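2024-03-11 09:14:02 DEBUG pipeline.ingest accepted 1 chain
2024-03-11 09:14:02 DEBUG pipeline.ingest length=168
2024-03-11 09:14:03 DEBUG pipeline.predict start
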Amino acid sequence: MQLLSRFRILSSYAAASAWVQPRLHVSLSCSLLRFSCLLAPSVRADAHASRAASSLAQEKAFALGGVGVAGTMSPGESDLRAVLKEADALQQLQSLLKEASPAGQLYALLGLRLRDRPAYEQAVPAFRKRSDVVSTIHGCIVMDEKMDNIVHQIERGDHDIFLTREFR
């Protein structure tokens, strides 16, 4: 993000210098274009992480492991894996615990268990008594479960294996 700020400053300078020296402006614009090409991958990675966290915040079902007839990875699991790879994963997970749908909060709680056990231990008591009903998917079976039951599964470590191994 610091690079993006520098890019904006340089862009402002380029626009202001246009009336002073047109040649400088053209040269600076070409340099900025080259600089933006270098910046693009990091901006795309941040955007993907933001999309993953946004998707988790709106997730309607809690599903890990292969789901459906083909046994594919659920969107929620895919998004959680993307968030866990980010440098600011802990901040994103903490935010999701407060602002996400019940299913999104469960994904965030599981992510905290794997990334920061003390933060998880601090957050889990508030979820133990929640009776919200959350849709879960196990293979081809879709059912509604109480949140406290899923939290108990997370506490036992029933779902850890799905995120600690590579998905095929």
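2024-03-11 09:14:41 DEBUG pipeline.report The chain has eight helices and four strands.
2024-03-11 09:14:41 DEBUG pipeline.predict end
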